[in-house]
Design brief:
The structure is a single chain. The protein has 758 residues and is an alpha/beta fold. It folds into 4 domains: 81 residues, Alpha-Beta Plaits (2-Layer Sandwich); 292 residues, 3-Layer(aba) Sandwich (Rossmann fold), CATH 3.40.50.200; 129 residues, Glucose Oxidase, domain 1 (3-Layer(bba) Sandwich); 112 residues, Immunoglobulin-like (Sandwich). It has 21 helices and 38 strands. The strands form 10 sheets. A 7-stranded parallel sheet has the order 7-10-6-11-13-14-23, sandwiched between helices. Strands 16-15-21-17-18-19-20 form a 7-stranded mixed sheet, sandwiched between helices. The longest helix has 20 residues. This is Subtilisin-like protease SBT1.9. Belongs to the peptidase S8 family. One of its GO terms (cellular component) is extracellular region.
């Protein structure tokens, strides 16, 4: 027994020692003001610091050790570097002169043609011609790389690359400097962090070339040029183009099939700042981190300081609340909505007539009639196999995963086709089916079942590859889009805005399967993808249109213009509905201020601007320590004389979450705002507030008179309600409208009883 105990203890100690010796990647923040004058630059100081933390290096047994430990030196996004360190080395580093803090490297989540028309963009009027289609604005995309041969990157008729551009087209496997052109003006790749995590890793495509498709899709959604006669296997036929077809694209590949780490992502942002991008588009994020712990939040603060607009995705963890990432107050956070387009198949029932259902089957299908049979819940695979040569009709019982089970049963059974009757609002997940499948609403399904039951020999045919435009109601909030409030900064309402994210058509690498037909991959130059990953680049492109029109506007001014001119009403004249909330009117925690409207954003009338100092005031208001604020701002002289959680933001969120409050006791929450007249000339605005159940909202003053362009006026908005609201979320809107009704400036107001747990 004693011997066994001794062996067990020995192995335990050995395991602990091995674990303590194992290196991991860290992002290390340093205080540059502490750098000794003997060092000519910060990189030499960092290398010297690293050499002092390793016993081997201190013994001078390996002079190259600090170089092997250093991953990146950062110039803009942080004051510091990333390195591979054992726990023991990290502890020594913490006592080094100039050390501020460190965070472990983390993996990130990737949030995976017709949309320009749905958004009202056209060549004759509005945002496209006024902005010259975003001409010469440079959009930097942090993603999985790019497929440069795509027609969406053709540079026919494109003028020379702007002289201010400092970027490069880096060579690598199946990629060289000639892969770029006057449209795709830069392409770089970053994987030192990934390799440091796994030194024995084999990178499948060590270059900016895209091996996943995500980066090609997002970058061409933002700024793809005109490509005629595009489609997804016959669906969505037309001319594809991005939101800003005149803009330039620079790809920064930091997301890899083998993994994606923050050390590489912030290195990409650092380089994008240096290269001179105007807009950064990032369809990725980190969950539940404080701002000073979030490398992406810290890196984007540096971008905002350089007047770079940053667009990010909200995430795909909906419909639950408090699930969004990128709730960072200085970036735009984009939710996903649907478009007024459906991809369908027609089920022809002979004399009964046709019935349309959702379908995206990419293969070819016979136009012949086949026997059709109703198999109830389609739960018996043995019976399904006996009816292989028939069209199978299944009734979804509406239980958890029941549609998924039916779908799999029919696929395994190998029936001619499957017809699924369901009330499930997420059938798009199944629509890109590898076998012929069509999804019907209940009322249409009932007609099909009646046809089968009332005919002795019922037969039907199916026509796939149909696209219907003008679907009503549209848009709707998708169920998967992540919801607020923001974990990292609850006092700022997130998300900010909604854009098309469902079944978005954009360019795709020709060697990556776009779909399956049975067991075979099929390929296409264009693909349909869904997610907030697709919504984000829509707004990145639209921001480029505004940047081209108003090059001197701050990122906050552009964000305000997008938000206050967005739409809350769908194409039926009713409030936009939420597919994740039983089609109730969508609240701003789901869709932000509303659905983006690029033409209206071009002339917002008033903007809510914000400076770097305003963000510092917010950080001070969050009760961050001096060191935590310094990590974000990279400054030793942050002014915290006016700490405030009340950022000058084009939205309002009030927390009435006092669970210990006495019954019927009330609280008054006040918000100060300043608006800038960008409409030009003299305008008089009056305020109205839509009624909000259980709350009293007042605005003082309720009239603002502007006599000159860029004149500023301030007001106070007060929200009074019970300290503990009965409703989880109540909402309405503050509307400033000028006397000539030229400008309507709308901001969401949310009152919530949610309590953010940290």
């Amino acid at each position: 027994m004693t011997k066994h105990l001794y062996v067990w203890v020995s192995f335990t100690i050995l395991f602990i020692l091995i674990k303590l010796a194992k290196a991991d990647n860290y992002i290390v923040h340093m205080d540059l003001s502490a750098m000794p004058k003997a060092f000519s630059n910060h990189q030499s100081w960092y290398l010297s610091t690293l050499s002092s933390v390793s016993p081997k290096s201190r013994a001078q047994t390996n002079i190259n050790l600090p170089f092997s430990k250093l991953i990146y030196t950062y110039n803009h996004v942080i004051q510091g570097f990333s390195a591979s360190l054992t726990p023991a080395e990290l502890e020594v580093l913490k006592n080094s002169p100039g050390y501020v803090s460190s965070v472990i490297d983390r993996t990130v989540k990737v949030d995976t043609t017709h949309s320009f028309k749905f958004l009202g963009l056209n060549s004759g009027t509005g945002a496209w011609p006024v902005s010259n289609f975003g001409k010469d604005v440079i959009i930097g995309v942090i993603d999985t790389g790019v497929w440069p041969e795509s027609e969406s990157f053709n540079d026919n008729g494109v003028t020379d690359v702007p002289s201010r551009w400092k970027g490069e087209c880096e060579s690598g496997i199946q990629f060289n400097s000639s892969s770029c052109n006057k449209k795709l003006i830069g392409a770089r790749f970053f994987n030192k962090g990934l390799i440091a995590h796994n030194p024995n890793i084999t990178i499948s495509m060590n270059s900016p070339r895209d091996t996943e498709g995500h980066g090609t899709h997002t970058s061409t959604t933002a700024a793809g040029t005109y490509v005629e006669d595009t489609s997804y296997f016959g669906y969505a036929v037309g001319t594809a183009r991005g939101m800003a077809p005149g803009a330039r694209v620079a790809m920064y590949k930091a997301l890899w099939e083998e993994g994606a780490y923050t050390t590489d992502i912030i290195a990409a942002i650092d380089q994008a700042i240096d290269d001179g991008v105007d807009v950064l588009s990032m369809s990725l994020g980190l969950d539940e981190l404080e701002l000073y712990e979030d490398p992406i939040a810290i890196a984007t603060f540096a971008a905002i300081e350089k007047n770079i607009f940053v667009s990010t995705s909200a995430g795909n963890e909906g419909p639950d609340v408090e699930t969004l990432h990128n709730g960072t107050p200085w970036v735009l956070t984009v939710a996903a909505g649907t478009m007024d387009r459906e991809f369908v198949a027609t089920l022809n029932l002979g004399s009964k007539g046709p019935v349309n259902g959702i379908a995206l089957y990419p293969g070819n299908f016979s136009s012949s009639e086949f026997p059709i049979v109703f198999m109830d819940a389609c739960g018996n695979t043995t019976d399904l196999r006996k009816t292989k040569q028939k069209i199978i009709v299944c009734q979804d019982p509406g239980k958890e995963d029941s549609l998924n089970d039916q779908f799999n049963n029919v696929q395994v059974a190998g029936n001619i086709a499957g017809v699924f009757i369901t009330n499930n609002s997420d059938v798009d997940v199944f629509a890109q089916s590898p076998f012929p499948a069509i999804f019907l609403e209940q009322k249409d399904g009932d007609a099909v079942v009646e046809f089968i039951k009332t005919n002795n020999d019922p037969k039907a045919s199916i026509e796939f590859k149909k696209t219907i435009l003008g679907i009503k109601p549209s848009p709707r909030v998708t169920s998967y889009t992540s919801r607020g409030p923001s974990y990292s900064c609850p006092s700022v309402l997130k998300p900010d805005i909604m854009a098309p994210g469902d079944s978005v058509l954009a360019a795709w690498p020709t060697n990556i399967g776009a779909a399956r037909v049975n067991e075979d991959l099929v390929f296409s130059n264009f693909n349909l993808l869904s997610g907030t990953s697709m919504a984000c680049p829509h707004v990145s492109g639209i921001a480029a249109l505004l940047k081209a029109s108003y090059p001197d506007w701050s990122p906050a001014a552009i964000r305000s213009a997008l938000m206050t001119t967005s739409d809350q009403i769908d194409n039926t004249g009713s409030p936009i509905k939420d597919m994740g909330d039983n089609l109730r009117p969508a609240n701003p925690l789901a869709m932000g201020a509303g659905h983006v409207n690029p033409n209206k954003a071009l002339d917002p009338g008033l903007v809510y601007d914000a400076t770097v100092q305003d963000y510092v005031n917010l950080l001070c208001g969050l009760n961050f320590t001096e060191k935590q604020i310094k990590i974000i701002t990279k400054s030793s002289s942050n002014n915290c004389s006016n700490p405030s959680l009340d950022l000058n933001y084009p939205s309002f969120i009030a927390f009435f979450d006092d669970t210990g409050a006495k019954p019927n006791s009330t609280a008054m929450l006040e918000f100060q705002r300043t608006v800038t007249n960008v409409g030009g000339g003299s305008f008089t605005y009056r305020a109205t507030v839509t009624p909000i159940n259980g709350l009293k909202v007042t605005v003082e003053p309720d009239k603002l008179v502007f006599t000159a362009k860029y004149e500023k006026k301030s007001f106070k908005l007060s929200v009074e309600g019970q300290r503990q609201l009965n409703e989880a979320v109540s909402f309405g809107y503050l509307i400033w409208e000028d006397s000539g009704r030229k400008h309507v400036v709308r901001s969401p107001i949310v009152a919530t009883s949610y309590k953010i747990e940290k």
